[in-house]
Amino acid sequence: MPDLKQTIRTIPDFPKPGIMFRDITTLLQDPDALCMVVDKIAEHFDEGSVDVVVGAEARGFIFGSAIACKLGAGFVPVRKPGKLPAETISVTYELEYGTDTVEIHKDAIKPGQRVLMMDDLLATGGTMAACCELVEKLGGEIIGCAFVIELSFLNGRAKLAKYDILSLVDYDSE
Length: 174
Description:
By secondary structure, the chain is α/β, with parallel strands linked by helices. It has a single domain, classed as Rossmann fold (3-Layer(aba) Sandwich), CATH 3.40.50.2020. Helix content is 28%, strand content 35%. It is built from five helices and nine strands; from the N terminus they run αββααβαββββαββ. It starts with a helix and ends with a strand.
């Protein structure tokens, strides 16, 4: 089986100088690595314990839908404003320089549903914390948050401390 870290391309100075961008497109091109990600996350969150996987736009969709199939669960997207066609609720959250907003359909999560949250990357935790807030506003029970990559030097886990967090690849420095 592949070493997942070796399947992730690092691109220096993208999108701006000083940033080491972790590019998952090379992992996605490797069928063994892609299947390994899906299998490892599905193994951690047992089949039957998840009703719905929520994926954060956009790379959370890639992994989240595959993991939902593996777990026998449904899939729900969380999107940027104006992308979902039915009635939504939204949360605006702080970024390093400004704010961002995410939305979910009002009828996407039923009260008491067990929800696995999925995104490709845990950095500062702001996006996932906002996604979790949306799910909890709808009455969902978050059983965990899963990520392919964690940039642990940014301490994003602190914003998600009340959840079971699984990350498969850690970068502890830029």
